[in-house]
Amino acid sequence: MSEELDLNKIREKITVLDQKLLELFAQRRALTLNVAKSKAHQIRPVRDQQREQELLVRLITEGKKLGLDAHYVTSIFQTIIEDSVLNQQAYLQQLANPNIQVPTVSVAFLGDKGSYSYLACHKYFSRRAEKIIETGCQSFGEIMQLVEAGHVDYGMLPIENTSSGSINEVYDILQHTNLSIVGEITRPIEHCLLTSVNTSLDKIKTIYAHGQPFSQCSNFLDKQQGIRIEYCDSTADAMARVYELQDETVAVIGSEEGGQLYKLHALEKAIANQAENHTRFILVSRKPVEVAEQIPAKTTLILATGQNPGALVECLLVLKNNGINMCKLESRPIQGRPWEEMFYLDVEANLKSLTLQDTLRELTVITNFIKVLGCYPIEHISPTKVPGSALADA
Known about the structure:
Layout: H1 2-42, H2 49-65, H3 70-96, E1 104-110, H4 116-125, E2 131-137, H5 140-148, E3 154-161, E4 165-166, H6 168-174, E5 180-188, E6 191-195, E7 206-209, H7 211-216, H8 218-222, E8 228-231, H9 235-245, E9 250-255, H10 256-260, E10 265-268, E11 278-285, E12 297-304, H11 311-321, E13 326-333, E14 341-347, H12 354-366, E15 369-377, H13 388-393
Helix pairs in contact: 1-3, 2-3, 11-12
């Protein structure tokens, strides 16, 4: 009994410390907001990776004195740094776009609550809005139509996945819209096999899922015998169906986080072909946004070249000669014009920069068609690298 009482006391102390840690995290976040305010007037970049690296090295050294593992310290403070950078970017974007500062936003996305697009919406707007009005859709086209008609403020669209590649249907829709890409977010996709009741893998006879999860989990599915595949319009639809059935022979492929919204539990985890499986989403709206100069920006454009040899190479050389990094190139057929391609390019540059403006003028001369789909902040925050010597010494 005394041991149990001692354990309770220890847990009480841990609870008190956890509360203090939360308060300290909140204080630190408030200070980083003050840093953003100072950078707003000085036009200094949000990130200073040399300072971040020096900070981590110092913390690793101090952590060693306290008996803390270097990788443990690094992991914690890389997360803190990422949060700081994203919060500063969100603040600076609000200053750059005062006309869109509203506490409530409306967003259309594929599926319903629990879908990967739903989770991406909530993650993206967690720093940008107090309330989200959600509109689930059955197709990408429906999402675009709702935004174009002004029924919702934004549309969230998956654009590419590290396992299954580009989502061609979205690229094709972007050819025919006047909407602008105003944001992006990359989310880890952690596919699980979810069920509504306690069961075992050998009892599963039917698996429901959207087409993308099926393709991303093909290796796992190929190993299963006698299982019927049922395609659904979205992951959320699939999860809702499995919940309603309450059948030990059916399962759904989805995220554990999304499944919890439907009272589903994970029968099998990490079933995707690739351990590192991420989907990049883009956010579209009727009006473009201004990207603050302190924030790394990405610009997406589409262009069509002539059918002469080397036409695309000539365009890429313009980017190279102007020192602009291209991080994505995708080709799609132009509807109604057999054997002609439309090229989608993502470049790491702010549309307001003179360099990119000059580049676009040069490209206009040598292309048949060119259009900017949007300029928006780069959301992915690469972890600050720590010298190997610092980790080894610690």
